[in-house]
Amino acid sequence: MEFFSLAEQEQIAVTAQAEMSRLTTFRIGGPCRWLMEPDTEEKLLRALALCRQTKTPHMLLGNGSNLLVSDEGIDGAVIRTCRLKSIIRNENLLTAQCGVPLNVLCRYAAENGLSGLEFAYGIPGTVGGAAVMNAGAYGGELAQVCTAVRAVDSCGTVHVYRGEELGFGYRRSAFADKTVLDIQVQLQPDEPGAIFARMEDYMNRRREKQPLEWPSAGSVFKRPEGYFAGALIEQAGLKGCCVGGACVSEKHAGFIVNKGGATCGDVRALIEQVRQTVHKQFGVALECEIRFCGK
Ligand SMILES: Cc1cc2nc3c(=O)[nH]c(=O)nc-3n(C[C@H](O)[C@H](O)[C@H](O)COP(=O)(O)OP(=O)(O)OC[C@H]3O[C@@H](n4cnc5c(N)ncnc54)[C@H](O)[C@@H]3O)c2cc1C
């Protein structure tokens, strides 16, 4: 039986040839062969099992805010987590499913008088993507509050990872090759008003410094030891430099923005140009933070 029918039989919402440009914040990327959007954890597990049984390559997709997808698309299944959105509170501990947007989790925490996640307000990802990337900003990162992650390994076994097993480091974790189901964050009681004020302050700083008016995938490069990628790119005179529709942002040189019709090829060519120029001028090798996927 065809993959599509098997997915339907499992009652998993499935679409053929879904355009990834609609599902990524860069607004770039050709179609994936199958898009699956499970609305329960059980269906997510069945979707993973189906991919394993049919030997269909697959990847997880949160909000697509750290991805650059090939113009030729993805020859396999994309499992999008946007329908898995439960949050459970147990005193100061929150358990959030992988598809919960970080902003929703931050607001939930603030409304419940729980502090610790303010740094994440404005990061346009989901809990799953944030766990994989150990998302962070303004001196905070998920590793500081995340005490456990429930994830599925490549054999389909569900484990709870804690402490060292979480493998958190700068923009990395133990979950790159796993499927995050949910995470636990341990927070501290505080006044909701004070928490919201800190969140608003971080959001204002983003609005001021980041080119939020254009599609992008955030900071393209990791912070090189002892430097800031954006500052090096700016000093190299690359602000406003474009390849096709992809441009180094005038507002924040660490961002590449899609000024209209940018292709994956445009972005990759621009990234290469930036890396070579920065390396030549400063001897610093920039490493990509955004992830490439597809053909
Ligand atoms: C304007 C803007 C600002 C940003 N600011 C920041 C910032 O301040 N700090 C920061 O750290 N990042 C920032 N980012 C990048 C991005 O938002 C984060 O990396 C975020 O954590 C990615 O989450 P996502 O759900 O969009 O993941 P996606 O982009 O969908 O996926 C990222 C990776 O995680 C994997 N993945 C997603 N969900 C799961 C899951 N459930 N299980 C296993 N793997 C999964 C994907 O396969 C992929 O490899 C910014 C991006 C933009 C566009």
Short synopsis of the structure:
The chain has 295 residues and is an alpha+beta fold. It is 27% helix and 27% strand.
Can you tell me about this structure?
β6 and β7 form a beta hairpin. The mean pLDDT is 97. Helices cover 27% and strands 27% of the residues. The protein has helices spanning 3-9, 41-53, 102-111, 127-133, 192-209, 229-235, 264-282, and strands at 14-19, 31-36, 58-61, 67-69, 74-80, 87-90, 93-97, 114-115, 136-137, 140-141, 146-152, 158-162, 179-186, 188-189, 216-219, 242-243, 246-248, 255-258, 291-293. The protein is globular, with a radius of gyration of 19 Å. It has 7 helices and 19 strands. With 295 residues, it is an alpha+beta fold. The chain has 3 domains: 3-80, 2-Layer Sandwich (Uridine Diphospho-n-acetylenolpyruvylglucosamine Reductase, domain 2), CATH 3.30.43.10; 87-195, 2-Layer Sandwich (Uridine Diphospho-n-acetylenolpyruvylglucosamine Reductase, domain 3); 211-293, Uridine Diphospho-n-acetylenolpyruvylglucosamine Reductase, domain 1. Flavin-adenine dinucleotide is lined by residues 25, 59-67, 81, 98, 123-126, 128-130, 132-133, 135-137, 175, 179-180, 210, 212, 216-218, 291.
Helical/strand content category: alpha+beta
Helix content: 25-40%
Bound molecules: flavin-adenine dinucleotide
Total of helices: 7
Flag low-confidence runs.
none
What general form does the structure show? globular
Highest-level CATH class of the largest domain? Alpha Beta
Q: Quick one: biggest sheet?
A: 5 strands, antiparallel
Strand order of the largest sheet: 6-7-13-11-12
Order of helices and strands: HEEHEEEEEHEHEEEEEEHEHEEEHE
Q: Based on the coordinates given, report the CATH architecture of the largest domain.
A: 2-Layer Sandwich
CATH level-3 fold name of the largest domain: Uridine Diphospho-n-acetylenolpyruvylglucosamine Reductase, domain 3
